[in-house]
Amino acid sequence: MTTPEGEPPGLTALLYAATARLDAHFAACAGAIGLTASQANAVHELAEPLGMRELGRRMCCEPPNVTFVVDRLVERGLVERRPHPKDRRAKLIALTPEGAELRARLFSGLAVDPPLSGLPAADRRALRVLLARALNDD
Which pTM value belongs to this model? Predict the structure, then answer.
């Protein structure tokens, strides 16, 4: 991957390209288990029950879209709405046992031939450290 001038691309271009590959890998893994990328994103984020607002924040999704995704997952029996213990007006979204099993399958699929697997383990560790440092808000 080079620019028209034969120079290596800038960091931003490389990060966008890596993100595109990761997104494509994620979408393919989601499709392999019968989910859309948005549904898989929700399932991915539900390690614990979350409120709709927090789920939307983690999914980078607007509230109406979160509601649509959650409604589809409820219809399939993969998530359920539970009463919020501290706010009787709010609901928590939680995986059902079937949803937890599908989440495990998603993670298994994501581990097979991920986009950065061509890097040696030491380089992946170094990249993880550098990205964590770059994204740290401290």
Answer: 0.84
Q: In this predicted model, what pLDDT tens digit does every residue of 101-126 receive, in sequence order? A: 999 999 999 999 888 888 999 999 99
23 touches 104 (CB < 8 A): no
Q: Which two structure tokens, joined as six digits, stand for 108?
A: 């298994």
With both helix axes pointing from N to C terminus, report the angle between 97-111 and 11-32 in degrees, rounded to the nearest 10: 130
Q: What is the DSSP string of the chain?
A: ---TTSPPPPHHHHHHHHHHHHHHHHHHHHHHTT--HHHHHHHHH-SS-EEHHHHHHHHT--HHHHHHHHHHHHHTTSEEEEE-SS-TT-EEEEE-HHHHHHHHHHHHHHHSS-TTTTS-HHHHHHHHHHHHHHH---
Distance between start and end Cα atoms, the chain: 33
